[in-house]
Amino acid sequence: MGKYLMCKRTTPKPTHGKEISEKGKPNLQFEDLPADLICTILSKLPQKEAIRTSVLSSKWRSMWTLRSKISLDGGAVCGSRRRGQNKYCQRFINNVEKVLQNYQGKMVEAFGIKFEFDSILVDNLNKWVSFAVSARTKHLSFDLVPIRFARCDDRFIFPFELLDSGSICRLQHLQFSFISLQPPSWFGGFPNLRKLELNLVHVTRKELENMLCNCCCLEWLRMVRCHLKDDLRVDRPMSHLAYLLISCCVITKIELHATKLSTFIYEGEFVPIVLNHTSKLNLWSLDNSLKFSCLKHIQLFAHILSHGSDKILYLAYVMRAAPFVEKVEVHFASGHSLWFAQEGPLRHELGHDEYKYLKNLCVTGFKGARGQLEFLLHVVENTTALDVITVDTTERMLESDIKNDYLCSIARQTIELHIREALPPKAKLFVL
């Protein structure tokens, strides 16, 4: 009797049009991923690269518009300039409009423009602000760059009148460069703004004060080359401000109240820094309750001349206002006249302080000036927790300056002679 092989017939599971691999599992394609995951992946790509994915297939033609962030950089969008300025601007405008057409009616969380400012762009810039409002944007960036030989006062005037109450409350991050801020009288600030970056922005003291006073949630403030030529003052407490950077700004005084400030970076001329509502610097005292109680790291960039070396006193005032500071960096940039200058304060003029938590002190641009040496001695004699002190005597000087090595060697000897013996027992001194 013959033998028969009995085979069980099985019905393959549906794969919804997907091919089956050799192991019997569906071959998933990139486009089969959830839309939110694809959006996350695309958001990691530069805008130009994300747009280029549209050529992969018909399904990918509009896939890049799932990105909730638009960042349009002139260099990336238009390439290098090969034609005149007007044609280059028009090319940028056309490319931006093509991109924005694909986002009509969609929500855009972050919208940014980076391009050289030209007056022929004004109408389009206003139009793009309106787009950000309609797209319910939370992060807005207009990073404009001045054209060579352009007038400094010829800047884009931000159109506050195009904002509605919803967009004013919705904005959380603003980045403005080479823009003029002239808020109207009805403008009451951005109540939910958390991050503000201003670079080469023209704004008056009063206008900036009114804006900052009404940005009650502000946590991060960066100002670079904003020439107020006046005080930077905020009368109301900035209760959430944790990061503050002020660099190369023409200001006469900094006056604010920010109890949660943890990072403060200042680069510029020495100016009074006041933490309360008085303009008298002598109210910086140990019993002053208004301090930077959360500040752990201070970074100061100071340009001084020999006749202004008494301003080194301000360094002690800043440290006194930060009782819990752990690391202090002071970077001096000065002229040749400061080498071993005898002008400057003595440490007894700085008063007695106690820096209980200071562990790391770094000073660069040391030239052996009396004020610099007295400041170092003041710090060393008033701290017990110091672990490391680094003093750098080197400086960016012309290679042809044969005096550099000699002067630096004398400055290092000065430090060794006066500082080492005053150090706490466990502290290490590094002289460069």
TrEMBL record:
Residues 1-23 are annotated as: Disordered. InterPro entries: At1g61320/At1g61330-like (IPR053772), F-box-like_dom_sf (IPR036047), F-box_AtFBL13-like (IPR053781), F-box_dom (IPR001810), LRR_At1g61320_AtMIF1 (IPR055357), LRR_dom_sf (IPR032675). Residues 27-63 form the F-box domain. It comes from the Eukaryota. This is F-box domain-containing protein.
